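User: C-alpha cells for Pentatricopeptide repeat-containing protein 2, mitochondrial, please.
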Amino acid sequence: MGPQPGPGVRHLYTPAALNLDHYARQREETSVRFANIETSFKARMKELLAAQGKAMIFTEDFKNALHLAEDNEEDMGLVREMSRRFNRQHEGLRFGMYIFGPVVMRTYHTLKQPQEALEALHDPELCGFFDQLVSHQVAMDLLYKAERYPQKLKDLTCAHEYAVAVSNRFDVLGALEDPVELWDTFKRETLQAAKECIGELPRARRGFVSTETLENIEESHAAMLAGKQDQHRALSRRTRTLLGRDKKRHVSVMREST
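Assistant: Done. Predicted C-alpha cells:
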C-alpha cells in the first residue's frame, strides 16, 4: 500500500477537468427517466447483443446503458459487449460519430473498475475506440486512485498508437518495496515524464475549449443527425453558454501568465 492521502492532497485531475461531475449528473437524470423500465431496458440490450446478424447499437441506447451501469459483473459485461459491437459497426467511420471512449472510461472511473479499464485498453476488439487523450487521462486517474502506480503506463501498451507521449517509466516502481521510496520515485518520474511530454514551458497558443464543451457539441451534432430538433436547439444554446465560460477562463489564465 502506498501512502494514504492527507488533508489538502490533490489527485492528478479534478473531477471537473475529467468531466466526471457532468457525467454524474447525466447518470442521475438517466436513473430518474428509467426508474420503471431499467430492468427491461437492460434485458432488451442483452437480447440485441445475442441476436445474430447486424443488429445495430444506437447511440442513445449506448449512452443510457453506460449511465445506468452499476458495479456488478452483469453490467460490466454489458458495457464490454456494447463497446465491442459499437466499435465494429462504426469501423472506418471516425468522423461524424459520437465518441464513446471517454464516456466508457468515466463509467469505469465512477464505478471504481480499474481492472475493467485496463482490459478494455488491451482489448483487440476495441482498437481505436480509446483513441483520445482524455480517455487515457481518465484511465490514469482511475489507476492512480486505485494505487496501481506501476501499471499506470506500463499496462497501457497501446498508448504509442494514440500518441500519448509519456514514456514507460513506471516499470521502475514495481521493484520498490518501501512506501516512502515508492511515493518519492513516483512523483519524480511523473514530473520528468510530463516535462518530456509537453516541455517545461506552456505553448504560446493554447486551445481554450473544455472537454465538456466539445462533448456538448458532439451531442448537439448527434441530435441534429437524429432529427431531434428540440434537443439540438437546447444543446446549441448550452454550447454558446459553455463557449462563453471557456473564453472567460482562458482570458483569465492568459492574464495571470503574462
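User: Anything notable?

Assistant: Residues 1-5, 155-177, 199-206 have pLDDT under 50 and may be disordered.
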